[in-house]
Design brief:
This protein has 174 residues and is of the alpha+beta class. The chain has five helices and five strands; from the N terminus they run ββαααβββαα. The strands form two sheets. A three-stranded antiparallel β-sheet has the order 3-4-5. A two-stranded antiparallel sheet has the order 1-2. A hairpin with a 3-residue loop joins strand 1 and strand 2. The N terminus is likely disordered.
């Protein structure tokens, strides 16, 4: 009679299930697949609406921060990440842009605990959550310590020098 081994698997939603693989050559493959399923984590992207983001940015003091209107921030976030908090872009130099503002790992956030060069003193993974606190603090630091919003190519190409009033229109923010 074949022997069954049980594999504990953690599935989404905090549920735990036991998987009983079939005996034979498939048992090893089933065990490996169960292990991969347990190790994989699913990150649900948070994609904000323009108006929700306008309210968050206004409460965070971004309107007229360093002379940039709220519309500039909303426009920049749209063209950098399409308001997606989990956006990641790997660049040719090996660095990665993270989160709603696409903040770069080379200088601004740390990918590893041992990485010393991080002007924002924040883990890059903290820029991928729907809590925008760390991302906003870092973006403010970038604007203050560099050449304003010129850091962001999306802003330079699509927002700079344009009428920004449409970006907050209908959003019930002042």
């Amino acid at each position: 009679m074949p022997t069954y081994k049980s594999y504990l698997c953690c599935l989404g939603g905090g549920q735990t299930h036991w998987i009983l693989p079939r005996p034979g050559p498939e048992m090893k493959a089933a065990g490996i697949l169960a292990l991969i399923g347990c190790l994989a984590t699913v990150t649900e992207p948070k994609i904000y609406t323009r108006c929700k983001l306008s309210k968050i940015f206004a409460r965070a003091g971004l309107d007229n921060y360093q002379g940039f209107s709220l519309g500039n921030w909303i426009c920049m976030a749209y063209y950098e990440s399409h308001y997606n908090t989990t956006a990641e872009t790997v660049l040719e130099d090996g660095s990665t842009d993270y989160g709603i503002f696409q903040i770069n790992s080379y200088s601004w956030c740390r990918r590893t605990k041992l990485q010393e060069k991080s002007h924002c003193h924040v883990a890059c993974s903290a820029l991928l959550t729907d809590d925008l606190t760390d991302a906003i603090i870092c973006a403010k630091k970038i604007v203050k310590e560099t050449e304003g919003m010129n850091y962001w190519q999306g802003w330079k190409k699509h927002c700079e020098g344009r009428d920004m009033s449409e970006w907050k229109k209908g959003c019930e923010v002042s």
